[in-house]
Specification:
The structure is a single chain. Helix 1 runs parallel beside helix 4 (about 95-100) and helix 2 (about 40-50) packs across helix 8 (about 200-210). The protein has a seven-stranded parallel β-sheet, with helices on both faces. It is built from eight helices and seven strands. It is globular. The chain has one domain (about 1-210): P-loop containing nucleotide triphosphate hydrolases (Rossmann fold). It is about 40% helix and about 20% strand. By secondary structure, the protein is α/β, with parallel strands linked by helices.
Length: about 220
Amino acid sequence: MKVKVATKILEANDRIALDNRRLFDQAGVFVINLMSGPGAGKTSLLERTLAQATGLKIGVIEGDIAGTDDAERVERLGAPVVQINTGGACHLDANMIFEVLDDMPLNSLDILFIENVGNLVCPAEFRVGEDMKVMLLSIAEGHDKPLKYPLMFQESSALVLNKIDLAPYTDVDMEKIRRDALSLNPGLKIFEVSCRTGEGIEGWTGWLKEVSGKGFPQP
């Protein structure tokens, strides 16, 4: 019975996600579902992206269980932002996104980031109408995460390894992270960045321009 209920929930979500996708396509906006565990640095990555992705018009939908701190950080950089508080749900779903789209100027955006709730499991299961999922992993979380939480790595088009400036102070095996992540998803694009120092951000923003069609085409 639980399996049937879960299947119905996902099917209903997917139908709304398709409606969202049609709206995004009509507006010509590229949509990224940004996922990570709590504290990995999603909002810090968005701040760096907004500051350094010159020429890109970016909007953000912020998902949190409660609070507006992250949305306020993004808003200070001049980006249009909408806050969704789930009130306890561990992920954003397609209907939550649909309900706020009228508040987002989709037609004037190049990229819309949907910053999902911090969780390494549930966000990967729910489509919201995105063009791609991107996962952020802080290296301080450890090199065991790909094999412990495989679905998020399998569902993502790119993996951003954040806080590489902390590598000298941890025993993290970054090569193991890369190896295990690629064993789960051979096509995964991997970026190593420090949102604190800015290292690696240029490669990330250059790739965003490529995949969104706002830069040189991919080879």
